[in-house]
Design a protein that fits this description.
149 residues; 3 helices; 0% strand
Length: 149
Amino acid sequence: MTGAPSAAPTVPAGPAPETEVARDLARRAVPLAPVLVAACALGWGLEGALSSAYAVVLVVANFLVAAALMAWAARISVAVLMGTVLAGYLLRLGALTLAVVVVRDAGWVELVPLGLTLVITHLGLLVWEARHVSLSLAFPGLSPRAQKG
């Protein structure tokens, strides 16, 4: 069967759109983090601020790990990508749970601001980023910025 066309899709060259989007999410977390930390400091003091900061770090790490796993798996095959996304989600959810369980009894942790920040940051960053993601195959990942001039 030499010369028969392959049904397997080719792997696109260039940067993975998953990692581009995740890095942009992390960049957008920078101005959001002080606002959340300050709000939690007002409500729960130093422990609330530290808990909120810990949650923001967990969220950013979660997005970066998810993107790295997807970028790696996408270069192999669609089946590996789907399996990695499912298994990665379950493992990352378990890792987030473990990260909270490990510190829940520490003196610097307040569970309410930690939980609120985890939820608000995940959802807030995803909604914020959705406005900047391209829905075009010509520009996978982030929408191109309009050039001035």
